[in-house]
């Protein structure tokens, strides 16, 4: 089963990818990880990509296309894969369509208000412990007693900005894949377990 996972930052896409990968025995391919692995192993394409990153530039589409194409041609992807973080643009979607056939594009759907609450409720401690104000209402760390803080990335205005970017970039992709009849929308507003149940239900329905 060849799957692309889409979802806003904070929708829990990464968690679903991990659970789905274990359940179906197909690899979770995070584009960021694959890119980093290529750079670390100093592959030709990795060295090329590194030049852009070092200059603070975006890695060009065709480089990411190639890296993903290489990865999904590997043996462990014969039975399928879960792509996470790719495609991000229509050009990339076209490139992907040129090398493989997708079965489903699963969209983890969560109201933005829920996402903002989830992320802006995150609290960190310098010892590495993490909390969420929905389940922890103290301002000091239960492990070491230090004062908790909010990462800049987790502040409400930053989250809203990231959601705006996501909306702008992903809307055309949703349209693109919905015309191909590939979209399965899944409610992701509750727990990881509940969301996974919804994923299974959607896939079972679609496969019947
Ligand atoms: Zn601590």
Can you tell me about this structure?
Helices cover 50% and strands 14% of the residues. It contains 8 helices and 7 strands, in the order βαβαααβαβαββαβα. It has helices at residues 13-24, 31-40, 44-54, 61-72, 90-99, 112-120, 156-179, 192-207; strands at residues 2-7, 28-30, 81-84, 104-109, 122-124, 130-132, 183-187. β5 (122-124) and β6 (130-132) form a beta hairpin. Residues 125, 127, 129, 141, 143-144, 146 line the site of zinc ion.
Structure keywords:
alpha/beta; Rossmann fold; five-stranded parallel beta sheet; 7 strands; 14% strand; globular; binds zinc ion
In CATH, the topology is named: Rossmann fold
How many domain units? Answer: 1
Q: Count every beta strand, where a strand is a DSSP E run of 2 or more residues.
A: 7
> Quick one: CATH class?
Alpha Beta
Low-confidence stretches: none
| SS summary, helix count | 8
Largest sheet, in brief, is: 5 strands, parallel
- Write the CATH homologous superfamily: P-loop containing nucleotide triphosphate hydrolases
